[in-house]
Amino acid sequence: MVMKPADLDATFAALADPTRRAILSRLASGEASVMDLAEPFEMSQPAISKHLKVLERAGLVARGRDAQRRPCTLEAKPLADATAWLERYRRHWEEAFHRLDGVLEEMKAERKRRRPRHRSER
Known about the structure:
This protein is mainly alpha-helical.
């Protein structure tokens, strides 16, 4: 399935912030509470909650209900979709660089053929 532009925009906007990337990195190792997620940062719980809301809107994080606790979990699909989108461009640039390598090799070979020989080489 092709990712909708708005979803892709939301994913990349969420990933643009280093705090949100750190939160995702932490959630990659398992669910965590908001307090757990706030611990390594010098910011308030409401500030972390704002970051979590951005991640939730992008579909990168889900919050569950466990009695009084609302554990956060990583949702991998938007990351997989963004990776697939980026992969198309990676392949494009790899092919372009491969073609450029070929042109450069041809230019080197042509330069060697055209280089005048010194008397000592004759």
